[in-house]
Amino acid sequence: MKRTDINIRDPYVLVEDGVFYLYGTRGETCWGKADGFDVYTSRDLETWEGPFVCFHNDGSFWADRNYWAPEVHPWQGKYYMFASFKSEDRHRGTATLRADTPLGPFLPLSDGPVTPNDWECLDGTFYVDRVGHPWMVFCHEWVQVGDGEVLALPLTEDLSAAAGAPRLLFRASEATWCKRMHHSSGQEGYVTDGPFLWRTEDGTLLCLWASFSEQGYNEAVAVSDNGDIDGRFTQAEPLFWNDGGHGMVFRAPSGQLYLTLHSPNGHLLERPCFYRLRDVGGQLERAE
């Protein structure tokens, strides 16, 4: 199939042995009941095989809806999926799952969400700091706190649980372009979605994230002032303004950097998109 045939949100690409593995939120079941995640494979980012089911709820898993934003990261010889889930009687949160290969099957690892049980959270991503400690960076939802937050949570070595308290990296409103949103519940505030950490060639640590401006959904960038997770993050110019977001960066076997995100942001219209990037002086720039 072609890239344009794939209806997913929140695309994530893992590159292993010359193969691109593409994960994401199933477009059709994004906003309601759901039961799993798929992976697609490619060698050229245009022609894909799949979908192959990589996680399926056999009825024993704790969540039954809002299966969002799966990411897969290699760690200590295994592959770990970070994904967000919700049920009628439990807050949304990011859990960890584990598999022997990028194709899965992924099996639950954490006991429910790793994020705080009484928080509405989403979009946890994996980060290893300069001394080798594992972290989850995630969003505390604007529908609960008003001004959406991006936080960092230290993890146990096996990635199954939190190893300390979360620390705030930044709030959505710190981006001057961020638009105040209105939720059907009556809540008003500023959105944070989809954090992803990337270190540039000169050691600068960037946090990509998504929110809304007057131009629609867009992909933003925050920069750490000390090159690590305990730095002060300030907002830089967004990477993408044109109705697309929840992105991440990956390097192809050729060495070329890519940004992937979903666009447009409308239900059942979402497609994974790929844009070449340049690493220039501690910043990422679109190459086309």
Question: In short, what is this structure?
Answer:
With 288 residues, the protein is mostly beta strands. It has one helix at 142-145, and strands at 8-16, 19-26, 36-42, 49-56, 65-75, 78-87, 90-99, 107-108, 121-128, 134-140, 149-154, 167-171, 181-182, 188-189, 193-199, 205-213, 216-224, 233-235, 245-251, 257-263, 271-280, 283-286. It is globular.
SSE blueprint:
Blueprint: E1 8-16, E2 19-26, E3 36-42, E4 49-56, E5 65-75, E6 78-87, E7 90-99, E8 107-108, E9 121-128, E10 134-140, H1 142-145, E11 149-154, E12 167-171, E13 181-182, E14 188-189, E15 193-199, E16 205-213, E17 216-224, E18 233-235, E19 245-251, E20 257-263, E21 271-280, E22 283-286
Antiparallel strand pairs: 1-2, 2-3, 3-4, 5-6, 6-7, 7-8, 9-10, 10-11, 11-12, 13-14, 15-16, 16-17, 17-18, 19-20, 20-21, 21-22
Tell me about this structure:
With 288 residues, the protein is mostly beta strands. It has 1 helix and 22 strands.
The largest sheet is: 4 strands, antiparallel
Outline the low-pLDDT stretches: none
Give a count of the beta strands, DSSP E runs of length 2 or more: 22
**Fraction in beta strands:** over 45%
Order of helices and strands: EEEEEEEEEEHEEEEEEEEEEEE
Order of strands side by side in the largest beta sheet?
1-2-3-4
Count of DSSP H/I helices: 1
- As a percent range, the share of helical residues equals under 10%
Shape: globular
Radius of gyration: 17 Å
How far apart the termini lie comes to 24 Å
Structural class: mainly beta
Chain-averaged pLDDT: 97
